[in-house]
Amino acid sequence: MTVFDLANVAYRYPGAADLALRPVDLSIKAGQFWALCGPNGSGKSTLLRCLTAQLTPVSGTVSFAGKPLVSWSAQARAQQLAVVRQNNQAKPALTVREVVALGRTPYRHFWQAITLADREAVDAALRQCDLVALADRPFLALSGGQQQRVWLALALAQTPSVIILDEPTTFLDIHYQLDLLKRLKALTQRGVTVIAVLHDLNQVLQFADTVALLAAGTLMATGTPEEVLNAKRVGQLFQVEANRVQDPAGQSALIFH
Ligand code: ADP
Ligand code: MG
């Protein structure tokens, strides 16, 4: 099943001379782990914002689950599509459970009490992210890595079919980076689609099914990380010297100079 279909999607920020995103065609299948990669300013966040309807493309169409994204109500969309917050944004003075429960907003009218389904979805999200023991702790008392797991749990409480993340590993130490990527990988194995901006190309080689490489607003390559992230292309794009090696476990890795 196709989750996203983009035809000729381009974006220009108001008042800007150039397109931040030149016309893009792509199709994202359910259950895939997609990585968006490219230098700073290459249009990764812009493309993500077109997928989440934060930005309306100046041309082309984004279809989500077979329907134009613009025809989805914000509420119906949020039941399918969750955006994981970056942990450098405002932090709420709430308990972990209360933060995760915010993920149920798309299912509730403001006058409604919490339903059994809400409670179950919050409990399941806490369990999936190993947060049960921390559920009643203040969010602010957690480490950055644990807080990032709470943002993921909030997204999971939405019971989405797609999870979108912009640089989710940026503020995490290597332990929590791998912890998050493994959780995302496990979600794709249960049919959830993950679309993430990632900077660590070795993590992309290890975890992603498909990588889309952006350069100055142009989608320059899409395919498996093995195909797309060859040393020559990566070296040219990031203006570094790159070599591809295999680690002892047979996993491809890039070494940069
Ligand atoms: P990336 O996420 O790959 O670093 P972005 O999608 O944020 O890149 O930015 C792509 C281009 O659009 C850049 O040239 C950037 O300067 C420009 N841009 C990003 N956000 C805005 C904005 N709010 N207004 C004007 N230009 C922007
Ligand atoms: Mg960005």
TrEMBL record:
User: Is ATP-binding tagged as a keyword?
Assistant: yes
Electron transport found in the keyword field: no
Q: Which UniProt keywords apply?
A: ATP-binding, Nucleotide-binding
Q: Which Gene3D superfamilies match?
A: P-loop containing nucleotide triphosphate hydrolases (3.40.50.300)
The signal sequence is none
Domain (ABC transporter): residue spans on this chain: 4-241
Cited SMART domains: AAA (SM00382)
- What is the name of the protein in this document? ABC transporter ATP-binding protein
